[in-house]
Amino acid sequence: MARGALLAALGLWIHYLAALCTATATTQATVPRSTIETKRDFEGIQSKFSLRTADEPDDDICYLVPGQEDTMARCNFNHTSKTFVVIHGWTVTGMYESWVPKLVDALYKREPDSNVVVVDWLSRAQQHYPVSAAYTKLVGKDVAIFIDWMEEQFNYPLDNLHLLGYSLGAHAAGIAGSLTKTKINRITGLDPAGPNFEYAEATTRLSPDDADFVDVLHTYTRGSPDRSIGIQKPVGHIDIYPNGGGFQPGCNLGEALRLIAEKGLADVDQLVKCSHERSIHLFIDSLLYEDKPSLAYRCNTKETFEKGLCLSCRKNRCNNLGYTVNKVRAKRNSKMYLKTRSQMPYKVFHYQVKVHFFGKVNVTKTNQPFLVSLYGTADESKNIALILPEISTNKTYSSLVYTEINIGDLLMLTLQWEKESIFSWSDWWTSYAFDIQRVRVKAGETQKKMVFCSRDGISHLTKGKEAVVFVKCTAKPNNTDTGDQSRP
Ligand SMILES: *[C@@H]1O[C@H](CO)[C@@H](O)[C@H](O)[C@H]1NC(C)=O
Ligand SMILES: *[C@@H]1O[C@H](CO)[C@@H](O)[C@H](O)[C@H]1NC(C)=O
Ligand SMILES: *[C@@H]1O[C@H](CO)[C@@H](O)[C@H](O)[C@H]1NC(C)=O
Ligand SMILES: *[C@@H]1O[C@H](CO)[C@@H](O)[C@H](O)[C@H]1NC(C)=O
């Protein structure tokens, strides 16, 4: 049963991938010519605007119809509160995907008085991918007409408007934002689609010009740019690449089977489009877990982030992921990174760990496995695995360490150098060891910098041996790592 459903879901996913591949292989289909000449031509609108309710987030019970003013009252549209407009993406089945009611529900939980409108463009979204991709122009135009109508007819302030678009829906939101008479307050792009858009001009895709503030989550930007399901380049004021943006934790098949065994089949479709759809669930997380906000950090590359070198919050270098993002408009696009858990709540705590490896002989080793344990005022997180790509005598290395456990303020840490799992003769003959005096730690979430000292002045870290312990230094240490071997 479980396996059958999973395979069926996988089949869909393969269909999806295959369609994307043919989409990128064929030349871009010609855009269906719009018959709409003026924006006031409500007749041409094919998209539908369903005002969902908190009680029935799953059902289309009332449509707002541009040009028909009475529909606003009939649907109990609240003119004084915020409006969220949710735009779905390409669909294989021609039906709403299961995330739609989840997002609607989370929006109402966070903003009970708001209006959550779901744009239904399902008939155009279930075409051959390039055709649906081209339809984003018409969908964007429909949404723009709807928004202009709300503004002109009801003086609805566009400061209260937030568009959320997933995949192709992100580009439709961008086009809508570029067409409205007044600028929209905010557009959130949830893993905007890559194929046919990676190299497209800014006017035909989501871009920072489309709203006062555009924030983007990139969660499935894998492979060469023309094959990536999510767009790779930054397209907003803030572009966040969780876990590097390529692939999300918990989205490999083994993990999927484990989750099904644990939680049942309810979320199987979510597992199948797992990394792409993770963008939505990260946003939902930010709505539901107000007390567990995930922080993202600006960084030039994901490699630099992996070294723990980007955990700064100075000058807006860090920001909240999702709903409570600070609206920082950098001059250039700013790429931001963070790690997450594989399930909700996604928040983790980031640390930079910096170690200087002293030694009498010159040794260089690559891809060395370490275990770090963190002990804090509130809790502890043991045996966090860490691979250092290179270690070399008398050099300092920095690495990112992260844990889902909130340990409070860090009091003590241990470091263990593991043997590789593959037997190595050189390891058998030689015992590798480095001397370590201090470990420097910076906590991303608290921005606290701490120095930890060996209890014995110097610790001997030997490969394959027990962990060495570092405690909070009692005296203010020197800035240099050399010299100063005496400690009180
Ligand atoms: C409309 O929303 C406002 C808050 O924005 C709230 O105070 C008011 O009660 C809502 N009206 C209705 C009829 O729900
Ligand atoms: C590393 O530095 C220490 C002093 O800081 C020195 O004693 C040692 O010889 C150096 N090791 C090598 C291999 O150069
Ligand atoms: C270790 O290597 C450095 C250069 O990489 C060199 O300056 C130093 O003399 C070497 N030390 C020993 C003990 O071989
Ligand atoms: C720093 O180290 C130097 C020796 O390298 C020592 O003379 C000095 O007293 C130390 N300062 C502190 C504040 O420990």
From TrEMBL:
Top class in the EC scheme: hydrolase
Assigned EC number: 3.1.1.34
SMART domains: LH2
PLAT domain ranges (all copies): 349-472
GO BP annotation list: cholesterol homeostasis; chylomicron remodeling; fatty acid biosynthetic process; low-density lipoprotein particle mediated signaling; positive regulation of adipose tissue development; positive regulation of chemokine production; positive regulation of cholesterol storage; positive regulation of fat cell differentiation
Catalytic reaction list: a triacylglycerol + H2O = a diacylglycerol + a fatty acid + H(+)
Superkingdom of source: Eukaryota
Family named by the database record: Belongs to the AB hydrolase superfamily. Lipase family.
Protein name listed in UniProt: Lipoprotein lipase
UniProt organism field: Gopherus evgoodei (Goodes thornscrub tortoise)
